[in-house]
Amino acid sequence: MEHITLLLGIVIVTALVFDFTNGFHDTANAMATTISTGALKPKTAVAMSAVLNLVGAFLSVEVAKTISGGIINEDGLKTEVIFAALVGAILWNLLTWLLGLPSSSSHALFGGLIGAAVMSMGWSSVNGGTVVTKVLLPAVAAPLVAGVAATLATRLTYRISSRTDEKSTAKGFRAGQIASAGLVSLAHGTNDAQKTMGIITLALITGGVLNPGANPPMWVIVSAGLAIALGTYLGGWRIIRTMGKGLTELAPKQGFAAQTSAATAILASSHIGFSLSTTQVCSGAVMGAGLGRKGGVVRWSTATRMFVAWGLTLPAAGLVGAGAELLTKQGTWGVATTAALLVGGSAVIWALSRRQPVDHTNVTAEEIGTPAVPSEPAGVVTTAIAAVSPPPAGPSVALAEDLAPFPADAPASHSPASAAAVADPARPATV
Question: Where are the membrane-spanning stretches (predicted)?
């Protein structure tokens, strides 16, 4: 019993560590566009997001119930399996954070849980129907729905504001961005914080502390909310840079449309118990907003790397979880070895991140040509969609053309501003 009690405590602490990594991994979902457009200062943005994530954790337990009693069969499930699952999820979260890739913390958790359960009890331990209907289908549909909604919202926004003053509307949309970013943070708390609640509840059920089907106790809700809020406040600056600058350049109107579309999709899924990836939803909305403005450019090289990470998340975390479970089932020494590997792997990733640190002081800095903000022209998809998009109001088209990336080794005469001056000598060159 002492061994089980100690192991249960280790699992609870590890689950809260995962919740912490989930917080800083997913800060970009709510605040990347708000920071990149200058609507809020970086530290102010992450503080606001942290508070609202904590509030959101108390609004619902539907997603927690899906995880604690839906994906994995509870009969015969051991506490070691949950520990192994968390190891796979944490290491994948840290690796993708190091690379600045907005992958899914949710799918990392599900992959680790499935891989560990299969290694322990076989494929019969996994509820395939629940995985398909409440994990895989939302993973495909949610970013597409959010992307299409953001595209349409962006076009509608530009059309409505086409006859208004650009400066006054920019201020208004920045204020709207702050409100919509708060809504995304609230939605994130209602969805992602609950995943850790579900895992801790599942561990308590396997340890005999709770009865099967029980709701998360209040102390579980509070601790999970605090852990994700703390992680959010520290800020996943690498991923914020990718979401805010790496996928596309967003104006305040686009940021408002993207965040509103994402928040709507996340809140709707939380209400019906779909444990979708908020990262995928927000990324889809950002790309949709980029495509919704004529002249907008989506950097497809960055998007492709992101898509690959999405596809690898479930199997990669599953393999790590299965390997961890292979160790933990050996007994006490196996659990200790797994814990040591988790700490060692996390330390190595942290040390590598210090070689090129990204924080609130340089998160909005332009680094054209780096993996975070690659230099590339508009692709085929962007060009085709832009050709049928309504023109934006005021100088937005010219601004988009002037800001479009161009090769660093091109002579000055080939820059967008000088090219425009050659085409129209009466137009002053811009810097």
Answer: 6-24, 45-61, 81-101, 108-126, 132-153, 196-214, 220-240, 307-327, 333-352
Q: Hey, what are 16's tokens?
A: 């809260």
Nearest residue to 29 (alpha-carbon basis) of 291, 315, 235: 235
Q: Rounded to 5 degrees, what angle do the CA atoms 348, 88, 237 make?
A: 55
Question: Three-state SS for 373?
Answer: strand
Pinpoint the alpha helices (H) of 235-359.
237-241, 252-272, 278-292, 300-328, 332-353
Q: Could you give the angle at the alpha carbon of 94 between the alpha carbons of 289 and 219, nearest 5°?
A: 95
Going through 99-177 in order, the beta strands assigned E by DSSP cover: none
Nearest-angstrom CA–CA distance, 195 and 108: 11
89: left (phi over 0), alpha (psi -120 to 50) or beta: alpha
Q: Is 375 exposed, middle or buried (0-12, 13-18, 19+ CB in 10 A)?
A: middle
| Contact residues for 190 (Cβ-Cβ < 8 A; gap 6+) | 56, 57, 59, 60, 63, 266, 267, 270
Residue extents of the structural domains in the chain: 2-353, 395-431
Overall size of the chain counted in residues: 431
- Please name the residue that has the structure tokens 């106790």: 217
To the nearest 10°, the Cα dihedral for 364, 365, 370, 371?
-10
Segment 205-232, tens digit of pLDDT = 888 888 877 788 899 889 988 998 898 8
Predicted TM-score of the model (pTM): 0.73
Q: Which stretches of 103-247 are assigned E, i.e. beta strand?
A: none
**Which residue from 322, 305, 317, 350 is spatially nearest to 97, judged by alpha carbons?**
350
What value does the mean pLDDT take over residues 382-399? Answer: 42
Tokens representing 414? 């080939």
Q: How many CB atoms lie within 10 A of CB 124?
A: 11
Are 27 and 218 in contact by the 8 Å Cβ rule? The answer is no
